[in-house]
Amino acid sequence: MKSNYTEGEKRFISFCDTNGYHYDRIAEESIPSPDFLLHISETEHLTVEVKDFEENKEETTAIQHYKQNGFATWNSQKLPGERIRNKIEGSKRQLEYQKGEYPSLLLLYDNRSEIVSIVSEYEISVAMYGLECRFIQGEQLLRIHGPNKKLTMTEKTYISYIGILDTKGLITMYENYICRKKTQY
Prior knowledge:
Strand content: 15-25%
């Protein structure tokens, strides 16, 4: 295995090898491209861009404080899902590469300490579709997604799924219900 792989890419390769999935590393070209082409079956393929979360300054300080004092408080993002929105934006050029030929997966690997590592389904949802807003209308409680969405009917429809690769080697995938291409699996 090449030494220039990120930890997330190494974990993805291990996931594929463990589960019998075939993949090709996509050669880096002069234009940005996804990291892998995953062969789900003979006719189904998925482009995969792997992005790692690394500790930021606030998280590093919180970890040190926790180790010294047994507790820590921090806020590493201004809004829920902010770091995931940044990863979505950071993968734009790589995932546009195939121009929709294949469905695509933005796979996130959280390489941070368990003390600060919190990536939840809620964060994925609000990063994809916007902050959750709740309205009371009569006796009904309405839930909608509001501002700060990254995936819309016209924006980033080339992202089919956002996935979380955990430290146990499992992938949880969240489907973009407004994407252009999906797999049948």
